[in-house]
Write a structure and sequence with these properties.
disordered N terminus; 15 helices; single chain; 39% strand; alpha+beta
Length: 871
């Protein structure tokens, strides 16, 4: 590239007369030249450089003469250098007089461009993947692009970030050195490498606190989150890795713990790393963490006052703060009080409200001491008593705001009114932040959208209005309209195929519509349903459901049902609805296990024939009305994190049918979020059923059982409950207790690891719930020798080709009446089935007196596939 000049070259000037400025003129700019070193080639277009050069040459043919200005040339230098294109820059100014003696300035801009990056790589990076480094650089808005000029400051910044990433993984001694190597193929092309020496991984073997007297080392270590001692599961959890960058957070937690207990001047210093030893392979360095602590005095509360509050009176604020004069100061109580105050002010539209405690220890000078004028004297502490601190809550109330507009973004299918009817925030009304939280919870319960988090709520002040805000909700619709087909397997349905259309947001109107056909080895289900949540434009739920079902219980019987349900629901309070459900169904029992029809079995159970519908063509008509009330604050129907659900229901059958019974039930479900990734779920359930009138015995399909993925998940379906003593077949009970506990851990996206514990028991008429129940042993008839304690297996062995032989039973011990199962499951959302899919591994520690569906003793360990959720 030929260096540009702004006047013809000297040869051209000699070929024609040279025009000169007027005699006696001051020096003028004659020519400008760009000169590139060392190759005299530039990657950047010359016009780009001329853009930054404000000095212009004279135009002799036009008679325009530009006076030479040294300050302008200096400014050109600074502008060129600021471009970061150059490694070196200097300006030469040479005199070239005109024939009439006027001085002409020939200005040469000497430039040496920076090296250009052709290759970037990370050498020696094993513990931190290159892709993760690049992701981190993008987060920090740092980008070293190929063919860009090398920037030393940016290179050092990248090296610092990579070192920090290694330090977070415990490689405190890692080094990152930039290496720049010239490449062939062009001017100043370089290969930029970050050479990484990972060094040993720093592991914490021991933590010692220095200076702590009020609390033990163990108590203080318990407050730390990121820097902990190693333990026996460190190879799984990674605990014990030293993370210097996160120590400040741990120190803040320790200080907060002290302040919660009255030590308002407590401080935590920088830790000292004492090297204990290196591993033989040099990959691990064990250290002791010595943490200095200054506890200070423990303070009691003196006076507790408020300042700055005008909207809410002090008498209304004081009950929110559980702080009493004379007790030890607790920052936790202060924070909880501030949270409650924020809710109170937020409900009134003061969403900018803030507060903080102003602490004035009486044994220290008041603020302002030593300034102009005398400082107020400190209040005396009680004689001989502990130090005292006066607390003043400084309140900054801000303005009251009102809602101007509420808009929605992302609801491409869902109508605005479906969202708006769930809101308790209104345009023109007070901007009630508590009503906004309530509204978000209601929207999340719908399941139409992905979970609305804080970033989905955009509140902006209206520019031209003093106390108005616009509220924008950004929703992301889930695929709630699905035409699906597929196959699966579970203990409840067996192997099955499914074809269905279902939606929880039919045509975007919030209506639920489903039509499905499922055929399986254990279950058949044909169903048509429709639910309108806002019947007659009022918050009344109306629904209808028609079905044909068959469910086969392995080794027992098949229950075939045809019927339908009609449901109406009404709101009675926040998150509380009452429902009235009427159902009518024809139920038939078929494919009975021949053992049920053995004369000996029927003779020993006078009501069993009625229960099995033997002699009634195997058919019953169930007509029942079921009122219920449900209080539900659970945040998400698929993957819940917080909230609770209480359900009370009562079934009354007999109106229009030939089966009469009454059945109350109570259920409570709680979800307690522990962190962003972990949640504890709990359920307690009680059920009772009893016939009345001319119905002496309940049909076997109405009796109560447990077992399976919806109750005690390590046991077979309907395997827990009272059994026939001769055959071992479950005949069901009339009362049950069930308890479930889950610890849910979010792994990635819609995948959760669930640790569970289930326990329950079922009892029949005349039996009471208990901790223990008897264990029986079968006694063979005369002339036979008992072989096993399982009566059914014993009967077959004694007479395998005939009916079950009569056996006697004797009590040989006791076992737990509660049957328990514990273990883990992987739960992830399956769009094909629109429900969670589950892989369950269970251990059954209390399983005495329980037989599986093959009438063999329940196994200790089981593995199952399932869909849905236990509760």
């Amino acid at each position: 590239q030929t260096p540009p000049t702004q006047t013809p070259p000297p040869a051209a000037q000699a070929a024609e007369p040279v025009q000169a400025p007027p005699a006696g003129s001051a020096p003028v700019v004659r020519t400008i030249e760009l000169k590139f070193h060392p190759t005299n080639q530039s990657v950047i277009d010359a016009q780009t450089y001329l853009y930054y050069i404000h000095t212009r040459p004279s135009a002799s043919r036009e008679g325009r003469w530009v006076p030479y200005d040294e300050q302008t040339v200096l400014d050109d230098f600074h502008r060129l250098w600021a471009t970061s294109f150059l490694d070196n820059l200097w300006i030469e100014v040479n005199d070239q007089p005109y024939p009439n003696g006027v001085i002409g300035k020939h200005i040469i801009y000497n430039m040496e461009e920076r090296q250009r990056v052709k290759i970037v790589d990370y050498v020696g990076s094993k513990k931190v993947e290159t892709s993760k480094i690049e992701d981190k650089l993008r987060e920090e808005n740092i980008d070293i692009r190929l063919d860009s000029f090398i920037d030393p400051a940016k290179v050092q910044r990248v090296a610092s970030i990579v070192r920090q990433m290694y330090a977070e993984k415990g490689y405190e001694y890692a080094t990152v050195k930039p290496r720049i190597e010239e490449m062939a193929g062009g001017p100043k092309l370089v290969h930029l490498s970050f050479v990484i020496d990972e060094g040993p991984k720093v592991r914490i073997r021991d933590i010692e606190f220095v200076g702590n007297k009020a609390f033990s080392d163990g108590k203080l270590m318990g407050q730390m989150k990121d820097n902990k001692e190693q333990w026996f599961l460190s190879f799984i959890s990674g605990r014990g890795t030293y993370q210097e960058a996160k120590f400040a957070d741990d120190a803040e937690k320790i200080v907060g713990f002290y302040r919660d207990h009255g030590y308002i001047t407590a401080q935590v210093g920088q830790p000292e790393l004492k090297v204990i030893e290196d591993s033989k392979d040099g990959k691990t360095r064990w250290v002791q963490l010595r943490i200095p602590v200054t506890e200070g005095e423990r303070y009691r509360v003196g006076t507790f006052e408020f300042a700055g509050n005008k909207v809410v009176k002090t008498d209304a604020l004081r009950p929110l703060f559980k702080v009493k004069p004379g007790e030890y100061y607790s920052e936790k109580k202060i924070k909880k009080g501030i949270e409650k105050a924020q809710e109170l002010y937020g409900a009134g539209g003061f969403f900018e409200f803030t507060a903080y405690p102003d602490l004035q220890p009486r044994d220290q000078p008041a603020p302002g001491a030593g300034g102009e004028g005398p400082a107020p004297p400190p209040k005396p502490a009680a004689a001989g008593g502990p130090p005292t601190v006066d607390v003043t809550m400084r309140m900054q109330e801000g303005k009251q705001y009102f809602v101007d507009r509420i808009t929605f973004v992302g609801n491409n299918t869902t109508h605005d009114n479906v969202i708006r009817r769930e809101l308790r925030l209104y345009e023109g009304g007070v901007f009630n932040t508590e009503a906004l939280k309530y509204s978000i919870k209601r929207l999340n319960q719908l399941g139409y959208f992905k979970q609305l988090e804080a970033d989905a709520i955009d509140v902006q002040k209206v520019p031209d209005k003093d106390n108005q805000v616009d509220v924008k909700l950004k929703v992301e619709e889930q695929n709630r309209n699905q035409l699906t087909f597929g196959a699966g397997v579970s203990q409840f349905e067996g192997f099955f195929g499914q074809l269905s259309f279902q939606t929880a947001n039919f045509l975007g109107r919030g209506e639920t519509f489903s039509v499905s056909a499922q055929q399986g080895s254990l279950a058949k289900n044909y169903q048509l349903g429709f639910t309108e949540p806002f019947l007659f434009d009022r918050p009344i739920t109306g629904g209808i459901d028609l079905f044909i079902r068959e469910l086969h219980y392995t080794g027992q019987f098949t229950q075939a049902s045809t019927g339908g349900n009609i449901t109406f629901g009404f709101p009675v309070a926040d998150f509380t609805r009452t429902y009235i459900n009427y159902s009518y169904e024809q139920v038939k029992v078929k494919d009975l296990n021949p053992l049920y029809e053995n004369p000996l079995v029927l003779a020993s159970n006078p009501f069993l024939a009625d229960s099995l519908l033997i002699g009634e063509n195997g058919r019953r008509t169930i007509s029942k009305i079921s009122p219920s009330i449900v209080h539900n604050t659970i945040d998400n129907p698929i993957f819940p994190n917080t909230g609770r659900r209480y359900t009370a229901s009562f079934d009354l059958a007999g109106i229009g049918g030939n089966t009469k019974f009454w059945s109350p039930s109570l259920e409570g479900v709680w979800y307690l979020q522990q962190s962003k990734r972990t949640t504890i779920g709990l359920r307690a359930q009680w059920q009772y059923i009893r016939p009345y009138g001319d119905t002496k015995e309940l049909p076997i399909f109405e009796k109560l059982y447990q077992g399976g993925e919806y109750s005690v998940r390590g046991f077979d379906i309907r395997s827990i409950g009272p059994r026939d003593p001769t055959t071992g077949l479950v005949i069901g009970g009339n009362k049950s207790l069930l308890f479930n506990a889950e610890y849910q851990i979010s792994i990635a996206g819609p995948v959760r690891l669930v640790l569970f514990y289930d326990t329950g028991q079922v009892k029949d008429v005349g039996q009471s719930f208990s901790w223990k129940e008897p264990v029986y042993q079968a006694v063979a008839p005369a002339g036979a020798t008992p072989v096993l304690t399982d009566p059914y297996t014993l009967g077959r062995l004694l007479n395998p080709n005939a009916a079950v032989a009569a056996v006697d039973r004797v009590v040989v011990g006791q076992t737990s009446a509660f049957k328990t199962s514990t273990g883990a499951e992987i739960r992830f959302f399956m769009p094909v089935l629109n429900v969670p899919f589950r892989l369950i591994f269970a251990f059954n520690p209390q399983r005495g007196n329980v037989l599986d569906n093959q009438l063999l003793p329940q196994k200790k360990f089981t593995f199952r596939f399932a869909v849905g959720s236990t509760f």
